[in-house]
Amino acid sequence: MKSIFEFLIICGVVTILCGSTARADVTCPPKPAAPVNIIWGSDNIKYDFSRSQSQMDNMNNDTQSPYGNNAKTHVGGLMKGGISVQSQVQVATMTYPRARQMCQWVDRVDVNIKIDPTIYISRDHKPGSCRHKAIMEHEMKHIYTDREIVKKYVPIIQSALSKAVVDIGIVGPKDMRDQARYQKQINDYIAREVKNINTKLNTERRQRQQAIDSRQEYDRVAAMCKN
């Protein structure tokens, strides 16, 4: 199980040219708050039952063994993958060439959130066997938890980015020569909001995933197939 939470800010510029005879005449017209569109989903679960027990033992695991570092244990199964977030921000620019002034605002924010899970189970536990079924049930708990976290954070992301758009408002009028600089400031502002949410999401995700890999849970799974 691996936590991945990425963000990508891509700025598309919509440019509107307006004539103006004097710098004093330049004003930035009010604009409605830009929409924040969020689409989320989970890829189909991928499965890998080809690895030996020794290969499974050497795979990286983001959660810690509840039995401690000195205990000799084997990894029968793992869920790897994560939650990725990609954000695209479109900034609109209205320019007044004669006055050499411009206005900018966020025109649109698109957020795509995706879960990309893969379940690994050692080939020592054949599909259909009690051990295979028990491990599969446990690993599915990790996937369900990721889905619950995304559902929880979708409205949090929506609210935070909608507020950020309002806080940014209309930038200008500013000197046209500073267009790239102000455009970067807008992108950086949105990026900081995404990063802040990313930190909170990852912290909660680690805690909840670690809670699944408890000693009580491991002992329960092991006891399912003693006979």
In DSSP terms, counting alpha (H) and pi (I) runs of 4 or more, how many helices? Answer: 4
Largest sheet, if any?
5 strands, mixed
C-alpha geometry: rod-shaped
Helical content class: 25-40%
Overall radius of gyration: 25 Å
Distance between the termini: 29 Å
Oligomer classification: single chain
> Which band does the percent of strand residues land in?
25-35%
Quantity of strands, as a count: 8
Mean pLDDT: 87
Low-confidence stretches: 1-11
Which class do the helix and strand fractions yield? alpha/beta
Note the run of SSEs as H and E. EEEHEEEEHEHH
Description:
The protein is of the alpha/beta class. The protein has a domain at 9-19 and 31-44 and 83-113 and 126-223. It has 4 helices and 8 strands; from the N terminus they run E-E-E-H-E-E-E-E-H-E-H-H. The protein has helices at 53-57, 130-168, 179-212, 215-223, and strands at 9-17, 36-42, 46-48, 77-80, 83-96, 101-115, 118-121, 171-175. Strands 1, 2, 5, 6 and 8 form a 5-stranded mixed beta sheet that branches. Helix 2 (130-168) runs antiparallel to helix 3. The longest helix is centred in the middle third of the chain and has 39 residues, at 130-168. It starts with 8 loop residues before the first strand and ends with a helix.
Write a compact overview of the structure shown:
This protein is an alpha/beta fold. It has helices at 53-57, 130-168, 179-212, 215-223, and strands spanning 9-17, 36-42, 46-48, 77-80, 83-96, 101-115, 118-121, 171-175.
Keywords:
three-stranded mixed beta sheet, 4 helices, 227 residues, five-stranded mixed beta sheet, alpha/beta, 8 strands
